[in-house]
Specification:
Blueprint lengths: L7 H13 L2 H8 L3 H15 L4 E4 L2 E4 L1 H23 L7 E6 L1 H6 L1 H11 L4 E6 L2 H9 L5 E4 L9 E6 L2 E6 L12 E3 L5 H13 L5 E3 L3 H9 L5 E4 H9 L4 E3 L6 E2 L2 E5 L5 H10 L10 E6 L3
Parallel strand pairs: 3-4, 3-5, 8-9
Antiparallel strand pairs: 1-2, 5-13, 6-13, 6-14, 7-10, 7-11, 7-12
Helix pairs in contact: 1-2, 1-3, 1-4, 2-3
Length: about 300
Amino acid sequence: MPQEAVTWSKMRTFAAVAHAGSIRVAAAQLHVTEPAVSTAVASIERQLRAKLTARSGRGIILTKAGHVYAEYCRQILGLLDESAIAVRRSGLVQLRVGAVETASEYVVPALLAHFHALHPEVRLSMTVQPRDDLFASIAHHELDVVFGGRPPRGSGLAVRAVRSNRLIVVSAPGWDRSAAESPWLLRGPGSGTLDTTLSLFEQLQITPHTLTLGSTGAVLAAAQAGLGLTLVHEDAAADDIAASRLVQVHVRRTPIKRPWHLVTGSTPTAAATLFISTCASDELGMEAFQHRRRTAQN
């Protein structure tokens, strides 16, 4: 009897199941029936001669083999999508940009506008995610270039350009309470700024009252309203400081250098290479990045 083939369709189905943790949810996302999803997963398991999923309550969990296969599916499907983009006819090039929230609001828009003015034929898309999710996405060929912090060592990702940036403490004008006595306004889980703020508390040996908000904009608005201190990217607070809605507060061990990194995979796409060159253009002035060829393994 001929061996069943693992098709792209079956692989996408398994990837959806792995991400959703549910046959029902995956079926709804793929607009197919639940039996069709179950059949596809069972077919892959027969082909691989391995159990990839197990029931857990009303959903499913991945076995150890399932986790391994899901990672390969994500990489293979990412490469498949990337190859489709690469071979499209001339004039239909795509650039998939990823950015952490603060960069997406205060750094990337001007760069995208400049790039689009020079290369209107390139189709642009931007994904906003926490830094770890972005690095996972670009490692799996789901993005072409990422704006954020430094990628982890050993990831194989390459830092192509950097721009100076600092994290500073700000408050409403007239704030006169010490860092230890002040409430601190925090970003949510997954934020690099949150991790740095908590590290700062340890260095200062303080345990202040904290208030967690969902976005950089919410944190800045709360600081302006006089709810406390917050550690933010200087780029994000610059306009508010210039307009005297916020002031920079001197706190020991701050400001903290946190340059913006422009990151790609080990082999950037042609569109990514063109974009990086544009971001390093002298025409951008203070907004420009500086070329740097160094992988996260170094």
